[in-house]
Amino acid sequence: MTKEEKNSLLQQFELLSNEFDYVLELSDELILYRPFEDAWSIKEQIIHCMEVDIANFHRYRKAIAQPDTPVLSFDQIWTRNLDYQLSDLKMSMDLMKLVRSYMVSHLKTIIACDWTKYAYIHDKKGKVNLEEALSQYIEHVDFHKKLIDRNIQLFKAASPK
């Protein structure tokens, strides 16, 4: 991957932290709405993304400091057991922005390095190098953004006219 490609990924990665800003203008009822029993609310989607960003912060640093070190995943039980519905949404969004900004700032200092040599061993995905990881971090937010948009559409469809 070229320096320009890395810079483009970094820019996209950082800008995605703003993808959820519009949620703060939605009603509490919509933010907490679950369209079906096992679906996550908008709030849970965003808190989950913040949690994953914090885990990814640790993972990418481990990949650089201690390449090929195992890292653990965490599963959906966190959403339930940590009761994301009670979390502060704005604070979580601010934290996501701060973590992403810090990561981008640091990754720019090693942009000329071969990012494929920096990797961690994910317990479910196997070996993930820094180039792959950054793309996955971007895809993760896109995935949850689609679920949030789905919740909004289903909420509107279920609301009395």
Automatic annotation (TrEMBL):
TM stretches of this protein: none
Domain of life: Bacteria
UniProt xrefs under InterPro entries: DinB-like, DinB/YfiT-like
Sequence ranges assigned to domain DinB-like in this UniProt record: 19-146
Protein name: DinB-like domain-containing protein
Lineage: Bacteria, Bacillati, Bacillota, Clostridia, Eubacteriales
